[in-house]
Design brief:
The complex is a heterodimer of chains A (301) and B (1295). Chain A is α/β, with parallel strands linked by helices and 301 residues long. Chain A is built from 11 helices and 9 strands. The chains are: A alpha/beta (301), B mainly alpha (1295). Chain A: InterPro entries: CDIN1.
Chain lengths: 301, 1295
């Protein structure tokens, strides 16, 4: 089913992208390769040289997803109180001896924890130390990570900044980039839909109507893609691997089905960064859609 | 009773007299008719007589193959007081388990017997077998008068007959009812037991309806039989004619006719038991039963229960061997079974079983007489379930009877010689059975012809029918031709979810955000359960409670915490209707067309196909036409869910919702084609309309039935017990429960529906509701009254003679009522009791001349949908053809009814009564479609009008208010709260013009819409009238809604608009408070707000082809990460690279299409950070030959920032930046100061802000040297110094 999907509808910014569908075998190769990588720009370069035929954005997305899985797995290990204390002590002692070195970054790479996450832990410890009674509020903590200059300790501020700027999977900057990518792709989707003269309601319109959980797009007139009726579209600006597909399915899509639709899973999930073949998602906008009123096909690729 | 039948058979009484009497047209005291008992007493007797008569032919007496049934019967003529003891041998008992009593009415409840029964040691115990009951001497003595204290009575007690139960107290019936249902379950399980398959299947197979329990007894001999209570008071009136009402789990008691004991305390002066008197009038032939048989019986001493079971088991295995060996002819009555086709015979004929031959029929005249009587009972609705009788007749037709063996012949001849007319085996052989059956079918042809096409085909192709009555065959074939009911393929079932409806489901309907979100979550969880159930409930060993129980309860408890039961109940109800309204049986889709196909193939091919099928699939037994209530398909899920959740709040909400919906449905108006005077003129038109209304009706009916079933289920759930509670508990419960009001006033609904002639809608759902009753329920006065009412309706619902009532409507009601009267929960004493006459008058008081009952609303499809058990006929016939039980699950096709649009009553009609009357008169003379069109259009236009006003007028008003608010906010010293109120009041005043707008809208739009929808040929005046009525109705509707809601609507909209405005200008309001802070800051803030609002659109001629924010951000991030390090030596940027990056950032920020505020702020922040890194020298720049190009680069930054709203320039003054600057080179420091100065000059950075940031420097412990250096630099650039105490003054100086 996936094979019939045009693979050349690239995003505006990434015109060089030619091939977004990766067979599972290759995906597994990438998955194995990224296992030892750290989320730094140096490692991303390595990754790109290793898989030069894949667009950097796709590689980044795959890496990011794999890395997040990795972080979730090792979360408990790093978040044990004594472990955190140990990290903080290590940082503190090192900071005395060689303050100029990128200490936190090094530590993060050593223990295989995301630099931004480590920075968060350390700042938390720092704040606790300074104002033991108050306890760091989430808000204060987030602000300090976003604006390291707010951290009273200049050296720590510098190290934290190093972490958050260098980390390519976590951190405020990355969050914002992800947010931007999501919005941009939704917008692209809307453009595509407008190009094909499909009438739709987007998330904002739906929210205004009071829908609780909404997909990105609800088609006012359903279409058929490859013989499947499509009633709504959810655009995911991420690489569509098995794991993410199932997670989304469980956390989000069933809910849409439950509240919105008349037909089972009548949706298309667009994985705009790329996706594995033969998943229930589609990469890019399908080139052929059928509509109730007009049986002709549109070629929009 | 027996006397009457006897007299009839002996031609002492004219048949016509009896028929008249049965029809109620005869006075009992007439000379020719000297009998004084009531019809209610005679009918059960007759039915039992027939059952008993045929028992031999229909059943398979597997355990007592050598015994002839007549033995027990002949006993009657003998001195029973000393013989009966002998009869109660276990063998005898097991032999006659073949027939179960159907009816055991109790016209009067004897308190003595009731009490006595309680004293019986067996009361309440379901574990005692009939056998052990027999061997217990205390049994009968405990409750019957002394003369009955004989073993023979115990015997009869153990296999009660119809008459036995006529006087038994209600609890006895309850007992039996309970057991029957229990037996049903046993029946199913028995069928699946492997090695005994063949036998048990047969057993079940012929146990349709009321007789099913006996089959179970045979199948499950190990299961403990229950005790049966008898009342002998009426025994002479109801001689238990052989047929044994055995408990389902009983070992097989003798089904032979009981000797009738003489009752000492006969209440009336009725003739003594007919059995005493009959011998006198009979030919003095000796009892036909050989003494040896009797001796053999006598010899058998009562076995213990264990022994008895053992015996049964042996017998059964023996039988299994016999039936599977084709060559061995057993004297046993052989029903058509798998053995038949296993022998390889072509279709029907079983080489071993006799082929029914019209010439071999004996006692034709008596059979005719019996058939006539029987048919009268059926057509007069004197039988509790018409379809059960039909089933019985078809069973007779398909019986294989006694094989032509010596013993069979012997039995027959012996029977014929019987001295007692009632002892004769009229239905003792297959010829007679078929003859009788065909006679009845001929008589009841109209009823039969309304069965489905497939059944008709099977029937008409039944060779026996052809042999016995070719005219019936022809008629059937003809009826089959005319039968138009189609079998439609069912659409596959999906989980159709209840669509989100903003009106009820959005946030404003919930008390809090939390409740809203919890509900959302719970909804998903609920659908998760549904999916899981769908996926796995068919897997063996899957159990709802085990798999989902704890999760369901957790979910429900979360609902409780959030208090959103009402929402969930609504979802539940809607989902229930959506999934279960149709007659969908999960997984039946594959079976159903299969059955249809076979039916269409005809008997011959069917037989072959069936045999093939038999080898592939496990056959499925017949369940008879009166299965107990069940929850098929998805209903099971909902039922299990409720059971598992057992949440009283949820149940209460559901009850409320279901009640409301039910009563609403019950009131729904259906227009019939008959109501139109123009009927016949427009056949095509009428057909379509009729179809619509029919469909609407069936939709309403099916929904109501479903809801009623669940309402009943929930209502009686708290009282459900697995066993009938003891009498004491019963009494307490009755006293208790009659105090509280029932969930639904069934009686009132019923009465009103009878008065308004809407029973066709009401009765079916009330039947569903009542079928869910618990044990005590029917004993409560309230429900008893309801049941009596139904009984009266049934008895008056004579098929084909209901005057205006349509036949199919009647058929449906008769079917559902008959079913109700046969399911276990229905008190058995009720049907034949004579007392509830008082209701009749009330029911006759029909006020409405026309109602739903007179409309042809029911078609065959609906009938079969409502009563899937009618498919049993087809199964039975198909099984006969195939010689096996049919596998067909559900031929009955589903209709997919569309949900009915309920028409609400128009409001405020009273004001213009005359106008309305005129309109009514107008519609009266027009086709009903006109009225519906007008009403529909009015409804739609009115609704559209409201929507239009919401979208235009309300929106405009709110926008105007917003403008006023913004303007007023600009003024000094406004009180926002006051402003809010005044604007709101203005808006509400202005909102009143909505009514005017609505009127205009309706008068503009309604006429056109009606015109389009009405036929072109409509006369102009009619058209104009219709238009104006539509306009009026639409206006009325829209205005009444608007006048009630416009203010609320406006207030709500305004509230959100006000909030929006206040949020968008928060700083300008807070500005007022911080007046003294200085104008520079306020300038900046205002700039920022204007920047945001101005930026919400792109520059003109923007093509939106700008670099994506994400891409640019990734690039900046890269540069920044190089700047903060760690980095390698070769990682450095050229000025040009940074420049182009900045250029792209500028582009991105220039196009608003893809830019969100978050991204915009982040981008700006990144540029400022980049500038910091640049001036502090942290960003490695490739040194160029052309000298310091940094100022030029900084200029680019300045240009960018001056075009964009509020970049976080304070970062430039932050501590880390300053620290970095101090360690930077001089030229870098110069650049930094240049940048700051430029920023101040261009008004991007307030001097105030700069000033407040300088003191920070003093707090830093910098080396003296650095401070001096910086000081110098500052002086050089004429910039204030941190060390200076009064920066304000210096600022002024520097300006």
């Amino acid at each position: 089913m996936m094979d019939s999907v045009s693979s050349s509808s690239a995003t505006v910014a990434d015109k060089s992208v030619k091939r977004m569908q990766i067979c599972r075998a290759e995906y597994r190769v990438i998955g194995r390769f990224v296992e030892q990588l750290r989320p730094t720009r140096q490692c991303m370069k390595t990754l790109q040289t290793q898989f030069p035929h894949l667009p950097p954005s796709t590689l980044l997305s795959i890496f990011s997803q794999e890395y997040q899985k990795r972080m979730k797995r090792s979360m408990a290990r790093h978040h044990a109180p004594d472990v955190i204390k140990e990290y903080y002590q290590r940082y503190r002692s090192e900071a005395k001896t060689r303050p100029a070195a990128p200490l936190l970054l090094e530590l993060a790479n050593q223990v295989d924890l995301s630099p931004a996450l480590l920075a968060r832990l350390i700042v938390e410890c720092f704040l606790e130390e300074r104002q033991a009674s108050v306890g760091a509020s989430r808000h204060v903590l987030n602000n300090m990570l976003r604006e390291p200059y707010l951290i009273p300790d200049l050296l720590l501020a510098k190290h934290v900044e190093q972490c958050t700027v260098n980390d390519c999977c976590y951190g405020p900057l990355v969050d914002c980039i992800k947010h931007a990518i999501g919005l941009e792709h939704e917008d692209l989707l809307r453009d595509k839909l407008r190009e094909t003269h499909l009438s739709f309601l987007d998330e904002n319109q739906l929210r205004a109507k009071g829908y609780d959980k909404t997909p990105d797009i609800i088609l006012e007139v359903p279409i058929a893609v490859d013989g499947h009726i499509v009633h709504w579209i959810e655009s995911k600006a991420s690489f569509g691997d098995d794991h993410s597909h199932h997670t989304y399915l469980n956390e989000q899509f069933w809910s849409y089905c439950n509240s919105l639709t008349q037909v089972p899973v009548p949706a298309v999930k667009l994985a705009v960064i790329g996706c594995c073949r033969s998943l229930g998602s589609k990469y890019g906008f399908p080139s052929k859609v059928a509509n109730l009123t007009r049986a002709q096909n549109w070629n929009i690729a | 009773m027996a006397a009457l039948l006897e007299s009839l058979l002996l031609s002492k009484v004219e048949l016509s007299e009896a028929v008249l009497w049965l029809r109620g047209q005869h006075v009992c005291e007439s000379q020719n008719f000297p009998f004084k008992f009531s019809k209610e007493e005679f009918v059960p007797f007759l039915l039992n007589f027939l059952r008993d008569q045929s028992s031999q032919t229909l059943t398979h007496g597997p355990t007592t193959p050598a015994k002839t049934p007549s033995t027990s019967r002949s006993v009657r003529t003998q001195d029973f007081s000393d013989r009966r003891g002998n009869k109660s041998t276990p063998i005898q008992t097991s032999r006659s388990a073949s027939r179960v009593q159907l009816f055991s009415p109790a016209p009067s409840v004897s308190p003595v017997s009731g009490r006595g029964e309680q004293e019986t040691p067996f009361t309440g115990s379901h574990c005692l077998s009939g056998v052990s009951a027999l061997s217990s001497p205390s049994f009968s003595s405990a409750w019957s008068p002394a003369p009955r204290n004989t073993p023979s009575e115990r015997r009869s007690a153990q296999r009660p007959s119809l008459g036995d139960f006529m006087t038994s107290p209600p609890e006895a019936q309850q007992h039996r009812g309970r057991r029957r249902s229990g037996g049903f379950g046993g029946c199913a399980s028995g069928r699946q037991t492997g090695p005994r398959g063949a036998v048990s299947e047969e057993g079940v197979r012929w146990d349709g309806g009321g007789r099913r329990s006996r089959g179970v007894g045979r199948i499950e001999p190990v299961s403990p039989p229950t005790q049966v209570q008898l009342n002998f008071n009426n025994l002479e009136d109801f001689p238990p004619v052989g047929a044994a009402q055995s408990p389902p789990v009983a070992t097989k008691p003798s089904r032979r006719i009981n000797p009738t004991p003489v009752s000492a305390e006969r209440p009336n002066s009725k003739p003594k038991s007919c059995f005493i008197s009959t011998p006198l009038s009979l030919p003095a032939s000796p009892p036909a039963i050989p003494e040896s048989a009797g001796a053999k019986l006598t010899a058998g001493s009562p076995h213990s229960l264990q022994e008895e079971r053992e015996l049964l088991r042996k017998e059964r295995s023996k039988l299994a061997q016999q039936t599977s060996s084709p060559l061995k002819t057993t004297p046993v009555i052989c029903t058509p079974t798998k053995t038949v086709h296993r022998q390889g015979s072509k279709v029907t004929p079983d080489p071993q079983s006799p082929c029914p031959d019209p010439n071999k029929v004996t006692q034709k005249s008596e059979l005719d007489l019996l058939a006539e009587l029987y048919c009268t009972c059926i057509s007069e609705n004197l039988v509790p379930c018409v379809f059960l009788e039909l089933f019985f007749v078809l069973q007779l037709l398909t019986s294989h009877g006694v094989s032509v063996s010596e013993s069979g012949e012997e039995a027959i001849s012996f029977c014929e010689d019987s001295p007692d007319v009632l002892e004769k085996a009229y239905l003792g052989n297959v010829h007679n059975c078929v003859y009788f059956s065909v006679r009845v079918l001929e008589n009841q042809f109209e009823l039969v012809s309304h069965l489905d096409k497939c059944t008709l085909r099977l029937l008409s192709e039944n060779e026996r029918v052809g042999t016995f009555s070719s005219s019936l065959k022809d008629h059937l074939a003809q009826a089959q031709e005319n039968c138009t009911a189609k079998v439609l393929p069912s659409p596959p079932m999906f989980v159709h979810s209840v669509p989100f409806q903003p009106a009820t489901d959005n946030r404003s309907n919930f008390s809090s955000d939390r409740a809203f979100h919890t509900f959302k979550k719970q909804r998903d969880v609920f659908y998760g359960f549904l999916r899981e159930w769908e996926d796995s409930h068919k897997e063996p060993g899957w159990d709802f409670e085990a798999a989902l129980g704890s999760r369901v309860r957790m979910m429900v408890s979360q609902l409780t915490a959030a208090g959103s039961h009402s929402h969930f109940a609504r979802l539940f109800q809607k989902q229930l209707i959506q999934m279960c309204k149709g007659p969908c049986v999960l997984g039946s889709s594959s079976d159903a067309p299969d059955a249809d196909l076979l039916g269409m193939l005809g008997a011959d091919s069917l037989g072959r196909l069936k045999r093939l099928q038999q080898r592939l699939v496990q056959p499925q037994g017949l369940i008879g036409p009166c299965p107990p209530p069940s929850f098929p398909g998805h209903q099971e899920f909902f039922k299990c869910f409720l059971q598992t959740a057992s949440c009283c709040q949820l149940n209460q909400h559901l009850k409320d919702g279901l009640c409301q919906q039910l009563l609403k449905l019950d009131e729904v108006s259906i227009l019939g084609p008959d109501a139109s005077p123009a009927r016949g003129e427009e056949t095509g038109d009428g057909d379509m309309e009729q179809q619509d209304e029919k469909q609407r009706f069936s939709s309403v009916l099916l929904t109501a039935r479903l809801l009623a079933k669940f309402l009943g289920f929930i209502s009686f759930l708290p009282y459900q017990t697995s066993e009938l509670p003891s009498r004491d508990i019963q009494d307490t419960a009755i006293t208790l429960r009659s105090k509280s009001s029932p969930v639904l006033d069934v009686c009132a609904v019923l009465r009103s529906s009878v008065h308004r002639r809407r029973t066709i809608l009401t009765v079916p759902w009330i039947v569903e509701f009542l079928s869910m009753l618990d044990h005590i329920g029917p004993l409560l006065p309230f429900y008893r009254t309801a049941l009596c009412l139904l009984l009266q309706i049934y008895k008056r619902m004579l098929l084909g003679r209901g005057g205006e009532l349509c036949y199919m409507n009647q058929l449906l009601m008769v079917a559902v009522l008959g079913w109700l009267f046969q399911i276990p929960i229905f008190p058995e004493d009720l049907f034949f009791s004579t007392d509830p006459k008082e209701e009749v008058k009330e029911l006759e008081n029909i006020t409405s001349s026309q109602g739903l009952d007179t409309l042809p609303l029911v078609d065959q499809q609906l009938l079969y949908t409502c009563c899937p058990y009618l498919g049993e006929f087809r199964k039975l016939l198909a099984a006969f053809v195939a010689g096996s039980t049919s596998k067909s699950g559900g031929l009955i096709r589903k209709i997919t009814p569309t949900s009915a649009e309920l028409r609400g009553p128009s409001t405020s009609r009273s004001q213009q009564k005359l106008q309305v009357d005129l309109e009514q008169a107008f519609f009266h003379n027009q086709p009903p479609s006109l009225r519906r069109t007008v009403e529909f259009v009015a409804e739609r236009v009115g609704s559209n009008c409201v929507k239009h006003i919401k979208a235009t007028l309300v929106l405009e008003l709110v926008k105007g208010g917003e403008k006023t608010l913004r303007d007023s906010l600009g003024l000094e010293g406004v009180n926002t709260a006051k402003l809010n109120d005044s604007i709101c009041a203005q808006l509400c005043d202005a909102g009143m013009q909505a009514l005017e707008t609505a009127t205009r809208f309706c008068s503009e739009n309604a006429p056109g819409a009606v015109r389009v929808l009405l036929p072109l040929e409509t006369s102009p005046s009619v058209l104009t009238t219709a238009e104006s009525i539509t306009t009026r109705l639409a206006t009325e509707k829209a205005c009444s809604w608007l006048s009630a809601n416009i203010t609320t609507l406006l207030k709500r909209e305004w509230k959100s608009a006000f909030g929006r405005v206040m949020k968008s200008v928060p700083s300008s309001v807070s500005l007022d408070a911080e007046e003294g802070e200085g104008s520079s800051r306020s300038q900046q803030v205002q700039k920022s707000t204007s920047g945001l609002s101005a930026g919400s659109s792109c520059v003109s001629d923007c093509t939106h082809k700008v670099p994506l924010g994400s891409e640019v951000m990734i690039e900046i991030k890269e540069v920044l990460s190089v700047a903060v390090g760690p980095r390698s030596e070769e990682e450095a940027y050229t000025v040009h690279q940074i420049e182009s990056l900045l250029y792209r950032v500028g582009q991105t920020l220039g196009c608003r299409k893809l830019l969100s505020p978050v991204v915009e702020q982040m981008l700006l922040r990144c540029t400022v950070q980049l500038a910091c890194k640049l001036v502090s020298g942290e960003l490695p720049l490739v040194s160029s030959a052309e000298g310091n190009k940094r100022p030029a680069l900084l200029e680019k930054f300045l240009v960018l920032w001056s075009r964009t709203p509020s970049p976080p320039l304070h970062l430039l003054l932050s501590e880390p930046t300053l620290t970095a600057i101090f360690s930077a080179t001089d030229s870098e420091k110069t650049d930094y100061l240049f940048l700051i100065r430029q920023l101040i000059e261009r008004g991007l950075l307030g001097e105030e802000e700069v000033g407040t940031n300088w003191p920070k420097l003093s707090a830093l412990s910098w080396p003296e040297e650095s401070v001096e250096k910086f000081q110098q630099l500052s002086l050089a650039t004429q910039f204030p110094l941190p060390s200076l105490p009064n920066h304000r003054d210096i600022l002024q100086v520097s300006q």
